[in-house]
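Still learning folds. Look over my entry:

…
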Amino acid sequence: MTRLSLAVRGLVTVVAALLAATAASATASATARAKPEPQAPRDFVALNSVDPTIIQEIRYFTPHNFVGEPIAGYRQPLCILTRPAADALHTAQRKLLRQGYSLKVYDCYRPQRAVDHFVRWAKDLDDQRMKTEFYPNVDKTRLFADGYIAEKSGHSRGSTVDLTIVKLPTKPARPYHPGQPLAPCFAPEDERFPDTSVDMGTGYDCFDTLSHTLDPRVQGEQHANRLLLKNTLEDLGFVNLAEEWWHYTFKPESHPDTYFDFPVSRRSLTGHN
């Protein structure tokens, strides 16, 4: 065989190998794209299918949160919960409506990928863009030690909700625009970011001891508002996290030992409700 023939054969072999590798890569990519997303168990529902009157302001779908950007896994501004938790909120809402109030939810089921996003952010000590509002008095190096960030969240089990109360009639919340001036989450109500909630003494997700539900420094109307939320929900089986006035878990939990990772979207609930 001539040297030219050998060279041509070698070139053909290389080209064939490259084509095979490209095809394999394309197949792998197609397989990855075709891999179905995790689905919610059948006992998870969209809250607005149980009670469409409860206001939803899903903060982690937006950049107005302590990270400063939409959070991984929030495909739609949707509250998803286990049905027992959603049914209990429906009952609470009926009681509050009779008093001229409505519930407003900030966060419900939270996928594990969102919690992972929080953890990555907490480890990035250079990212301080939302400090002025959400953790003005907390050094970011202390977020894990002080319990503000953890690698697992009860929200991922589907029976925990972050929420507040609004006085009716209410107006739409003012939109947040990234880069706008921020005020501390514990500033007086007329100075911190307005979100239509009754005055709870701090804003949502305020990393400060003033967020403790029964902090003795929170008095008067602010204390009364916290107790209205607390008493209404605890009468129906919810348990408050003492460090966060907005955080409640319905007991007994349907999935006490499972941390789910399906996206927050109606597609995750397809065929469920």
